[in-house]
Amino acid sequence: MSDSHVVLITGTSSGIGKITAERLATRGFKVYGGSRSNQDSRDFQSLEMDVTCTRSVKETVAQIMNNEGKIDSLINNAGISMVSSVEDISIETVSQIMETNFLGTVRVSKAVLPHMRVRNSGKIINISSIGGFAGLPYRSIYSASKYAVEGFTEALRLEVEKFGIEACTLQLGSVHTDIKSNREENLTTESPYFQEGSKVARQFNREVDRGLAPEKVSKKIEQLLHRTRLKPRYRVANAYQKTFGFLIRPIPSTVIEWLLRRHYKL
Ligand SMILES: NC(=O)c1ccc[n+]([C@@H]2O[C@H](COP(=O)([O-])OP(=O)(O)OC[C@H]3O[C@@H](n4cnc5c(N)ncnc54)[C@H](OP(=O)(O)O)[C@@H]3O)[C@@H](O)[C@H]2O)c1
Question: Does this model's pTM top 0.85?
């Protein structure tokens, strides 16, 4: 069994996942990255994995288990964004976003959990967004997928803590990556939502272009991997986005969790 801290990160072909994989690899972690486009990397082991496909996820996890004998940490980072009105988005696109952002997180977590449980140890960090605590206009399905990740993670924590497994979300504000060129966009001139949707899209673009450096996120992830206990959620965002988050949810997550534990006698 590997002596190193073995980490699986989803979505490492670009952006936050790639920067995080590179950072952790140079700091002594044994990193496996999974994306649909398998890109060669000198720093970490890049595997072809599609989080929307159960077989692909199971094969990737089996390969890592075969090589290392354990997976210490999972970072569910793979995700796609969108810009569209609810009326204009196709159900196929809705399904693709939910399959990637939410079901992908569930799928990879389910594949990894049994291996963490038998070792009585593990960490799962689910990448979320300010869209995970506020429904963002023209990003309804993206927000819904991140709300789903939030609820999933809150419940998962309470189920797995007795097995030594820690889980949290990391809510991100705008981060300077290529997310806007990879997003699903449906803004057609015929749509009654076109003008407003385009204006909001331009604002999203500006916010991402002026967003935080992805290195800031990777640094936070590294810090979380070194912690023994994880709180339910963390946030890396600019001051405005952080304040917004606090105003929306002033009661600390730890207090809500304490109430749930008491109620269900966990
Ligand atoms: N950038 C921001 O402002 C921001 C803000 C809040 C939250 N986030 C979250 O941060 C995460 C990373 O985003 P990013 O900004 O780094 O965007 P990005 O550069 O577009 O990276 C997205 C990654 O997800 C992978 N991916 C997409 N579909 C996949 C699938 N079916 N299976 C496996 N991998 C898949 C992509 O690789 P392939 O296409 O090669 O598969 C890519 O490596 C996402 O969850 C996003 O929602 C970003």
Answer: yes
Task: Report the length, in residues, of the chain.
Answer: 266
Residue of 96, 130, 172, 233 to mutate, ligand 1, most atoms within 8 A of C-beta: 172
CA 238 to chain centroid, in Å, comes to 18
Which residue, 100, 165, 170, is CA-closest to 129? Answer: 170
Backbone angles phi, psi at 263, to 5 degrees: -60, -45
**Ranges of each domain in the chain:** 6-264
Q: What is the pLDDT of residues 138-165, one digit of tens each?
A: 999 999 999 999 999 999 999 999 999 9
- The CATH number corresponding to 6-264 among 3.40.1110.10, 2.40.70.10, 3.40.50.300, 3.40.50.720 equals 3.40.50.720
CB under 8 Å, gap of 24 or more: what pairs does 36-43 form? 37/13, 38/13, 39/12, 39/13, 41/12
Q: Which of 32, 138, 142, 147 is catalytic?
A: 142
* Residue ranges lining ligand 1, Cβ < 6 Å: 10-17, 34-37, 49-52, 77-81, 100, 127, 129, 172, 174-175, 177-179, 182, 208, 211
